[in-house]
Write a structure and sequence with these properties.
rod-shaped; alpha+beta; disordered N terminus; about 475 residues; four-stranded antiparallel beta sheet; six-stranded antiparallel barrel; Elongation Factor Tu (Ef-tu), domain 3; OB fold (Dihydrolipoamide Acetyltransferase, E2P)
Length: about 475
């Protein structure tokens, strides 16, 4: 009898325990639902809202840069030191002076150069004299050849031919005389000794004629060639002498011209209109470079910068995260630090294709962007800093909401928290387009006039966002 009673008692206890568990579950659920509703009420009452609107969307890139001239000429010293520390500045215009093309800028010490230039002029004069002398000697050598070819040679040939003619005449007379003596000897009127004597005279006459003809042949075929060769050799020597003299003169004239250019380079004038800026450099550890009267300037050292104030630009550095948005031709507003409330119009002229060298380890990657200032303004001056706002995108008649009203869930799913006219709140999935630092374009999911919570991400844990596929 005890066993059935104990069994019924256990069943009753089990039923009571299950009932208590069910009651506690319902009570906890009601508490949670009430708390979530309270959170909705609290969020709706305390949160700051913004009304979505339709209008013009403008996206821009904001950076800072240096204001400078896009036509900035560096004027350097072009006077060679020639073993000295440099050349001294004797006179120069004041920094900030506005100059026109050709105006005086600086006078360097040219006293030593003028002395050397005078010595070079003396050398040039001597070399010119040597050239004139060599030309005269060459003309004389050519005249000798012409005199021989057209005068002495013909005279000598004529003389030798005359000698031949005389020898022929003597030979003819000797022949006639010998023949007459032979006839007389046959008749007994002339002796044998006379005959032999006339025969010897005839032989001598023949020999003299042969010698005369030989001298003409030798003179025409050998002596003439030798003498002409000697005269031509003398001409070539004089030509070489003249060429050497001309080279010396050319070299000395080049050196004279170089010294003349050096003297002229001591007087520096403006190559274009602009405002004079001294090329001072106080960043050197050994000594500062200060442009002033008496300062020594090295060959190639910068003395002035001559920016053209009518062609000003801003050299801005744009972070690599924004550089793909910037294109040549985009509209820009420039605001100088001295008057930040006044915008000055500009245009992007060029975007560098390569980044600047990093200034330090893990420094941001930056690109140079050159902005032409298209509006004339007295606020723009060389050396100032300016903020540039580059307008990279413009969309008309689009729905916009604050960037801070967006909540990112998952990888690419955005929500806004909408406050309904009844005062309730609801998370809503939206599609977004372009955005700037303040607003995002809402392409789907939100209408103009609806209220969304600002700083929506702070309510992330209090809102249950629906899952998206």
């Amino acid at each position: 009898m005890n066993k059935p009673m104990n069994h019924r008692t256990g069943i009753v206890k089990l039923i009571i325990l299950v009932a208590l568990l069910l009651c506690s579950t319902v009570f906890a659920g009601s508490i949670l639902m009430r708390n979530y509703g309270d959170n909705q009420v609290n969020i709706g009452a305390d949160a700051i809202t913004f009304t979505a609107f339709k209008g013009k969307f403008i996206s821009s890139v904001n950076e800072v840069g240096d204001i400078e001239s896009s036509s900035n000429i560096e004027i350097r010293c072009r006077v060679k030191s020639r073993g000295r520390e440099g050349v001294a500045i004797l006179d120069l215009v004041s920094e900030g002076t506005k100059v026109e093309k050709g105006d005086f800028l600086c006078q360097l010490d040219d006293s030593l150069l003028r002395e050397e230039l005078t010595e070079r002029k003396i050398i040039v004069a001597k070399d010119k004299s040597d050239v004139i002398k060599a030309e005269s000697q060459l003309d004389a050598a050519k005249s000798k050849l012409a005199e021989f070819s057209e005068g002495r040679f013909l005279q000598q040939v004529a003389k030798l031919k005359a000698d031949i003619f005389v020898a022929e005449e003597k030979l003819n007379r000797a022949i006639e005389k010998y023949q007459h003596t032979v006839t007389l000897n046959r008749k007994g009127y002339a002796t044998e000794s006379q005959k032999e004597s006339d025969k010897s005279a005839l032989d001598i006459a023949k020999e003299n004629l042969t010698l005369a003809k030989g001298e003409l042949r030798i003179y025409e075929n050998h002596s003439r060639e030798r003498e002409e060769a000697e005269l031509n050799s003398e001409i070539k020597q004089q030509e070489a002498q003249l060429e050497a003299s001309q080279y010396r003169l050319e070299l000395s004239q080049q050196r004279e011209a170089e010294f003349l250019r050096q003297v002229e380079s001591c007087r520096i004038t403006a190559p274009q209109a602009g405002t004079v800026v001294y090329a001072n450099d106080s960043d050197r550890r050994d000594s500062s470079i200060v442009i002033e009267e008496g300062a020594l300037i090295r060959d190639g050292q910068e003395i002035f910068y001559l920016p053209d104030p009518s062609k000003m630009q801003v050299n801005a550095k744009v972070n690599d995260s924004k550089i793909n948005k910037v294109k040549a031709g985009q509209r820009v507003e420039v605001r100088v630090d001295t008057a930040p409330e006044t915008p000055i119009a500009g245009l992007v002229r060029r975007v560098s294709a390569f980044p600047l060298p990093r200034r330090y380890y893990q420094a941001p990657i930056e690109y140079e962007v050159f902005v032409d200032i298209t509006e004339s303004s007295p606020l723009i001056r060389e050396g100032l800093r300016g903020k540039v706002e580059i307008f990279v995108e413009q969309l008309d008649d689009v729905v916009m909401a604050p960037v801070s009203s967006l909540v990112l869930t998952g990888k690419e799913t955005y929500f806004v928290i909408v406050k309904t006219p009844a005062g309730k709140i609801e998370p809503r999935s939206v599609s977004i387009g372009s955005n700037n630092e303040k607003f995002a374009v809402i392409t789907k999911g939100l209408s103009p006039g609806e209220e969304v919570l600002v700083d929506a991400d702070t309510y992330r844990d209090s809102i249950e966002f629906p899952s998206t596929p």
